[in-house]
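Session log. Operator J.P. requested a structure for one protein chain; no other inputs attached. Running the standard single-chain path with C-alpha cell output.
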Amino acid sequence: MLASLPSELLRSLRLTLVIAVATGLIYPLLITGISQVAFHDQANGSLVTKNGQVVGSKLIGQQFTKPEYFHGRVSATVDPNNPTKASPYNAANSAGSNLGPSNQALIDRTSKDVAAARKDNYLDPNAPIPADLVTADFSGVDPDITEAPALLQANRVALARNLDPTKVRALVERHVQGRVLVIFGEPRVNVLDVNMALDSGEAR
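Structure written below.
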C-alpha cells in the first residue's frame, strides 16, 4: 500500500489540476464569451449611456427628487459604513427595510410619503396613491415603477416643464414595458429611461 502511495498522489494531483483548469478557467471563459456575444448589454451591466458617457444602468434605480422628473420607489438602502445613515439606491448595500406591516416606523413613514405624494402631485387629500410609489422593494434599487404611479406624476412633470400633460402621458405609455415572459409581474416603466426621454424632448 505504501509503495503505491506516490503514484496515487500523482494521479490525484493530475486530476485536481485537470478539474481546476476545466472548471476554473475553461468553463468561465466559455460562458463569458457566450454571454458577450449573445447578451452583450446584459453581461456588461445593462449600462445606459448619453453622449458617450455612462449615466446609469437599466437594472439599478436612481433617486430623482426634482419636480420635473418622474420619481421612483422609496429606497431603504443605507450607507454600508454607517447603518443609521440613509443612502437611497446604494447598489453596494442592496437591502430592504425588513419592517413588518405593523411596525409603527413603517406606518409613520408611509403615511408621510402618501401625504407628500398627494401634495407634490396636486391631488385631493383623500386621493388613492399606488402602493409602489410609497413602499420600498426588497432590493432597495428597483429601477421601475408600475404604470399607475408614472401616470399619476404626469401632470406635475408637465407643469414643471411647461409641457402638454397629454403629451407627457403619451410619453409614459410609449415607455411602458410588458410583463416578463408575458405572465410575470406588472407592466412597468423604467424611471431613468422615461426621464432621459423627457430631457431629450420626446414629449414636446
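Operator note: The chain is about 45% helix and 10% strand.
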